[in-house]
Write the structure tokens for this entry.
Amino acid sequence: MILQRLRRLVGAAVLVFAPSVSLAQSALQQPCTSAANGCTVVPLPTAINALYGNDLFLQNLITSRFGTLGTAALLNVGTVTGTVADGGALAAEVVRAQAAEQAEATRAQGAEQTNATAIANEVSRAQSAEALKAPIASPTFTGVPAAPTAAAGTATTQIATTAFVATAVAAGSGGSPGVPTSRQILGSGLATGGGDLTADRTITVPKAAQSDVAAGTDDAKALTSYSIAAALGAKAPLASPALAGTPTAPTAAAGTNTTQIATTGFVTGALGSYAPLASPALTGSPTAPTQAAADNSTKLATTAYADRAVAARAVGQQIFTASGTFTAPAGTISTSVFEVTVVGAGGNGAVGSANNVSGGGGGAGGTSIKRYTGLAAGTGYAATVGTNGNRTSSFAGPGTTISASGGSDAGGTVFGGAGGTGTNGDINLAGGYGTSGTAAGNYAPGGSGGASSQGGGGRGGVAFGSNTEAGYAGQAYGSGSGGGSATASVASGIANQGAPGIVIVRWWL
């Protein structure tokens, strides 16, 4: 392709630079003067088009050179035969042209690489330079940025330097922008004591007291930390307040179960159907848990507990009709109850006389009853039974001895004897008096013996005809005997004695 174009280029050069068509033909070694010479004579443009129709550049170049020749210019474009001698110039030109084209390509590639490197270096330099610049919008300067100082009196959006500000301040208030050296402060509202700033002035603001803060009605005084602290000092904190006096709060509705404060009214209403802890007065049929057997505490004892305790408790009794020793049985505990009854012996009735005077009855012995606790199992306690010789009965329990004296004998022949008395018991009873005899009539019956806590005394004797009768002995323990009867001529027999005393011990272990 290169060689073909080169040959066209040479031919075109000959045509372009030849002084005439004949010289161009001679240079191309193609002489053609007429058709008789065996060549075809054509107009020059037609010949150019036939030779260089595919190369517009050369076509345009040659046409511009010979376009004015018209159809008179003739070229011989016939077939050339044999060897056209060019003296080797054409081959040398081809080599030179190839070398030149290769050199141009190498130069173009080098230039392109050089340009790429230069572009990359410029981009890097521009990026580095840009990093050192501040943005136009909202720049953030560092170090000591500087700017041109605006003229005094400038009032625009231009940057104000320190020099501009110093100048403005120094200018004062003399018609130029600056800080005024003199201003009048007027005392009004909360403040009093105004004046000119050219001299020291004191501005007084009245402060609110604690009472003012609490009242909240005075708007002509200022709050201070002192008045606020004083006012808040009388307030309870929100967290864990320690209230004093008689604090109040709204009473919640009955049945409320939240963190709302419970007032005394709420609590009283809630507890109205409950018994108080101290001395509750229960009604209806209150119930409670039944405690374990033998529980000895302040817990409530139900009827079930009591029935079970009674059923399981040992109950016993020992009667002393003669003096002896009571030994507390096994199973006795400190709370076991022992009830002791002592009865003194009864007094004797009097005999009747032969002059119709009958004898009085003897008095009954007294009674003392006491319940003991604290007896110790296996320990003996003295029980003394009164007799006609020593009529006083007694029991020496733990801490206290109870006793009952015997009844008195009838006095003389007609008066009944006095009853004995009880001492130191929970219950102390006096014995009954013996009734008096009679002193009239032909048949005088004797008086009756006094009755004791255990029963009645002996009856008096009776008289019938010429017979008399002694009084009867006492019937119950501690009772007195009856008095003897009498007639006008016969006395009764010897009177009987009063009944002996008794000691009775009952227990519930």
